[in-house]
Amino acid sequence: MKAPFKLLLGALVIATAAGIAAPRWLPLLRTAGAPAEAAAAGGSGKADGQRRNDGKSGDKGEAGRTPQKVSTVLIRPERFTESLSATGSLLADEGVELQAEINGKIAEIRFREGSRVRRGALLVKLNDGDLRAQRELARHNLELAQLREQRVGQLVKEGIVTASDYDTARFEVAARLDQISIIEAQIEKTEVRAPFDGVVGLRYVSEGSYVNATTRVATLQQIDRLKVNFSVPEKYAGRIKVGSPIRFAIVGSERRYDGTIYAFDPRIDAGTRTVVIRAVCDNPDGVLLPGAFANVELALATLDDAILVPAEAVIPGVSEKNVFVLVDGKAERRAVEIGTRTANQVQILSGLKAGDRLIVSGLQQMRAGLAVADVADGEGGALKGPATAKAAGGKARS
Q: Which terminus in the chain has less CB density within 10 A, N or C?
């Protein structure tokens, strides 16, 4: 019991001593803390003042900001040929695979591969020995029938036989003539002749080969004039006219060839949603070959007052396309309707007019109302429209 009592007594002594000394050291603590609080308050006031000053200087900087330098083009209507690009193939004006009409063994080949032949020229002859024998027999039977007809005719005049006997003899002569005609038709089927003027291709048979009606002997192509087959999207179907000119090029040649549309398919392919067009072109020197791949350009319309702008100046949006125009030193946003798009230009159907200065640079930071200045001011004015420096014309993307 003595130890707890001593602890309690010691605590009471310490508390009493602290209460006696408190009036002396509390004023000292307050005096020491006042300068620190004043210094903190002063620092906070200076920071607030600095922020206020910065705000004022920021407002002054915004108001006095230097206009953003941009490049512009001056919109000027110009002549523009709207054209459509497509791919196609060349076809022979006339082309056929040469085949025999009947089965038989080839007796003779009368053409040289790659040579020109005339219509009706004999190219291949099959063995027709049995048919020629049958024809000789039919001719002898015809002579016999004709003699009998003459004799019966004489007997009818003498009244020995009736008229019906003479009719039988006469019809027998006609039957013999028909039999000869049938055999001669069979002999003609043993001959493969050129159906038109052209160039005969490589042969796939030799003399002595046995062929039938499905055996390909060779090909014949008429290439003095060629056809150009190509397809265009259905949205252009109503703008295709017979007689319209085309230009095309083939792989491996920089030369461009001219052609004329002469027909098109009167229906739209449901699978590809395209319409097939066919044009013709002259090929007197035989440079163009059937089957070649062709890049075709078709002129759709020529406009005398088209507005063309650089493609990079048109900004696509969610529901519309926009451009920026320099008006009174500020950028103005304009919604535009576009037409034909070429490799580097876009036709503007509405939204721009002649004399507008179109902004073509700095578009990533551009916004409506931004102060801008044309870098060309003082250097001759805005640039000319994009199409004035190039040949007028454009290719629609199919």
A: N
